[in-house]
Structures are given as C-alpha cells and as structure tokens.
Amino acid sequence: MNAAIESLLNQHAMLTRRYFLRCGAAGVAALGTLPLLAEERKRDARLQAALDDLETWLTKQDDFQDVSRGNPKPHSLSEEKRKQVGLTRDTWRLEVIADPKAPAKLRSPLSKKDGTALDFAGLMRLAKEHAVRFPKLMTCLNIGCPLGNGIWEGVPLRTVLWMTQPRDKLRRVFYHGYHNDDPKQMFRSSLPVGRVLEDPFDLPPVILCYKLNGHWLTPERGGPVRIVVPEAYGFKSIKWLTRVFLSNISAANDTYANGNNDLDSPLKTFCATLSVPRKVKPGEPIPVTGYAQVGISGLKKVQVWMHNDEDDLPAGDRYHTKAPWRDAEILPPPKSWGGDLPDGRIPLPTHSFDPKTGRPKSWPIRLSRAHWAALLPGLPPGQYTLRCRTIDAKGAAQPLPRPFRKSGRAAIEQIPITVKA
Ligand SMILES: Nc1nc2c(c(=O)[nH]1)N[C@H]1C(S)=C(S)[C@@H](COP(=O)(O)O)O[C@H]1N2
Ligand SMILES: [Mo]
Q1: Domain 3-55+268-419, what architecture?
Q2: I need a surface site. Which of 257, 286, 291, 353 has the fewest CB within 10 A?
Q3: Alpha helices in 32-135 (DSSP H)
Q4: Phi, then psi, of 159 in degrees rounded to 5
Q5: Distance 108 CA to ligand 2 centre (A)
Q6: What pLDDT, in 10s, does the model give residues 43-55?
Q7: Is the CB of 229 under 6 A from ligand 1?
Q8: Ligand 2 centre from 140 Cα, in Å?
Q9: Dihedrals φ, ψ of 132, to 5°?
Q10: What is the CA radius of gyration of the chain?
Q11: Does 69 contact ligand 1 (Cβ within 6 A)?
C-alpha cells in the first residue's frame, strides 16, 4: 500500500480508538450503572459506520446549497450573456460611488462613467498585498441547516472604500448584485461603515471575495466577486456584486428587511444531529452523530438528552434547562479537511490556522462548524425523544430562550426514537 495512505489509515484508526475510549469513560461516569464495557463499545460497528459517513468539514463549492433568487438566476445565464453583463472575471467592473439619495462626500469615486471602476485585474493587484482568508459557515437566517462551510478569500472591502477618498457624510455602506437589470429583482444589503473599517475583537474583515476553498468563486457561489461578512447570516453576503453605494443614510436598506428579518443578528451557536437510528433494539447502544454551528458566542460543549415520552417534562422549562443533559464528544480537527482544497491543504495564511503548521490555533473554530458524536447506552423498550443543545464558550446554554425565529434559526432539535424488540 502507498505509504502516505497507510499512515493516514493508521492515524484514523488511532483517532477512532481514542475516541471510543474517551466516550466509554464519559458514559460510565455519567451513568452510574454500566450496561456495556468500554471494550465492547469500542467495537460498536454502527457508530464507526456513522463516523466514516460524516460529511467533511469543508464543503465543495458545487455541493453548497443554493437559495439565491432571480429569474433567471444570474448564475444560470449563458457564458456569453454573463460576459455582456460583467459577470466574468474579464468583464467585471465594480462601482463604488456616493449614494444618490444621501451622498457621502468622496474625492475619487470608482465609477464606470469616469472610467475609474475597479476591474478584476485591479482587484488582483490589491490582493497581492491585502488578500485575507478565513473559514466561515454560510447559512441562511431562515433555514436551520447550513448551506456549506468554506475557506473564503478576498480583499478587505475597506481597502477599496479608502480608494474613493471619503471625506464626510459616510455612515453606511449599501451594496447590491447583478439583478437582470430589473429593479424588482435587486438583492441588496448594507453595513454600518464602522464594521467595514474595523474588525471587532478577532473577527476577520468584510471582504470582496473571489475564491472559495482555493478555487475561483463559481457563478453559482456568486462569482466573479461577492461580499462575505464573516459573522453575519448569508443575506449580508451579496453575490454577483456590481455596486457599492457610500451613504449618509444611517439605517439599513436590506432586501431581507422586507421578510420581517432581524438584520443585525449575528450567527448563533446551536447543534443538530446528522445520523440517528429511529428504531433500536432494547439494550442496544445508540450511535448518534451531528454538527454544531459555532456562532459568535463560541462553542464549549454539545450535550444530548434522551427522554422517555411517558415521563412528564417539568412545567415552565421550555428550554429544558433542568434536564439531565450529558456531554457528547466534539470531534477533533479532522486529518482531512475535504472541500476539494488544492493539495488537500488549508492555504496559508488563513485566519484561525497556525501559519506554520496549518493546524487550527484553537478548536472548534468560531463562525464555522464542528462535528460531534455520542454512543448512548441501550434502553428498555419504549418511545423516547432525543434532544441536543450546545453550551457556548461563556458557559450559556444555547439556544437561549429566544422565541424570535427571524433572528436566525437556532432550536433544540427533537428526534423521536422507538426502542422495540
Ligand atoms: N445577489 C444575491 N446575493 C445573495 C442572494 C441573492 O438572492 N442574490 N441570496 C442571499 C442569501 S439569502 C443567502 S442565505 C446567501 C447564500 O449563499 P450561497 O448561495 O453561496 O450558499 O447568499 C446571499 N446573497
Ligand atoms: Mo438567506
């Protein structure tokens, strides 16, 4: 066997063994009784199969879910048409100009009219000095399941903003993408200028993004250039970017405001399952895997709780704060990242990764995702509900009591499980 593959397989086997040993020990401590020996758990073939089946940490560009609008959707246009409307790398032009409704004072706007609009070659010249990369989970505020996890590369939007030499009356940055030249189809978003100029704490900058997982951004992902806002839900990350308006209007004008959405709501921490058997035999251990979305509040733990449906739930505890939650295992950084990276390596430097070793500086990585697993002890016959939740880096159980769905989907997932001979 090829030596590299052999070493990879050995590492994988070691990792899996360690995982089962840890999982076994935690199970014993939490249970008090011992239905299964750690040795036996180690051999649970179904959890092994579920772990082998887990999605990769990064998502291939073409495997991202797509929720974009437009009739026709801009990425479905023929190459010829995309050339005509500036949606290829050799025809793209970005205007960064004063908002006609409330113009910021700019010394040198980037406009098509003056021949100063930014083209792709110009963006690449800026990239030589300013390019940044960061991991981010792309997810829609209204959908629970993430659309995909990627390493996004681009030039900080502020680099281009400063080129316009703004002088005054600049409070907000509005931006929109190509919309079939039909104003009704325009999809737009906005940010306070401060978020563009500075990065709070250790957040990466807002970027003009042209690469995903080391490859040019495809038309479907919003290429040639889209905005990516690290800590925001997907609707702030406008695809097929064509224009930026620098405005003195102080409020948002986002398309998503029309859907009753909470526009300033950052990415939430929560978890969900990926594989759970719906029917199991009495006494048979139950293998569970899942993912956790790591929002701005970080992720310390994933917890699970199996409840017998015949038992009453405590009244007035809608978020199950008093339930006997047990820790699941957050899986360590994977040996292989997936996502079709060139050479299978994280391009360096990338935010959150060590620039020398290419390993994550800490784990899990904020604004991204982690996978988790648990081998739950076998149960007597009955109808049960499995729930999972997260504990954020500050120790708060997530999701918090938060009935506002329009602030970003984050729920305690419930899965019915039947235990029957
Ligand atoms: N121009 C444009 N940009 C857009 C959209 C759109 O419809 N048009 N949809 C937004 C929404 S609501 C989301 S959730 C993300 C999804 O990004 P993805 O298609 O790369 O997964 O793109 C955003 N950017
Ligand atoms: Mo969305």
Answers
A1: Sandwich (2.60)
A2: 257
A3: 38-42, 45-53, 79-84, 120-130
A4: -60, -40
A5: 33
A6: 588 898 999 999 9
A7: no
A8: 4
A9: -130, 155
A10: 24
A11: yes
Mean pLDDT of 60-73: 95
Residue nearest to atom 16 of ligand 1 (CA): 234
Q: Which ligand is nearest to the CA of 237?
A: 1
For the chain, the residue count is 421
Q: Is the CB of 239 under 6 A from ligand 1?
A: yes
Nearest CA to ligand 1 atom 2: 239
How far, in Å, from the CA of 75 to the mean position of ligand 1? 12
Ligand 2 centroid to 340 CA: how many Å? 24
For the four alpha carbons of 54, 57, 63 and 66, in that order, the dihedral sign comes to: positive
Cβ of 66 closer than 6 Å to ligand 1, yes or no, is: yes
**Ligand 1 pocket, residue 234 CB under 6 Å:** yes
Percent of the chain with pLDDT over 70: 90
The reply to whether 64-259 shares the fold of 3-55+268-419 is no
Of 343, 345, 350, the closest CA to residue 154 belongs to 350
Residue pair 371/289 in contact (Cβ under 8 Å)? The answer is: yes
Residue nearest atom 10 in ligand 1 by C-alpha distance: 235
If DSSP codes are grouped into helix, strand and coil, which group holds residue 25? helix
* CATH T-level assignment (fold) for domain 64-259: Sulfite Oxidase; Chain A, domain 2 (3.90.420)
For residue 369 the two structure tokens come to 């995702």
Question: Tell me: the pLDDT tens digits for 208-260?
Answer: 999 999 999 999 999 999 999 999 999 999 999 999 999 999 999 999 999 99
* Beta-carbon contacts of residue 234 (< 8 Å; ≥ 6 apart): 67, 138, 139, 140, 141, 147
- Ligand 2 center to residue 237 CA distance, Å? 9
Neighbours of ion ligand 2 (CB under 5 A): 140, 234-235
Return the pLDDT at 43: 53
- Give yes or no for a contact between 134 and 152, defined as CB atoms under 8 angstroms apart: yes
| pLDDT value, residue 42 | 62
Mean pLDDT of 255-280: 96
Q: Encoding tokens for residue 47?
A: 């959890």
* Cβ–ligand 1 contact at 138 (below 6 Å): yes
The answer to whether 272 and 388 are in contact (CB under 8 A) is yes
- Spell out the domain ranges in the chain: 3-55+268-419, 64-259
H or E element, residue 216:
strand 215-216
Which single residue is written with the structure tokens 């999605």?
A: 55
Q: What is the pLDDT of residues 162-198, one digit of tens each?
A: 999 999 999 999 999 999 999 999 999 999 999 999 9
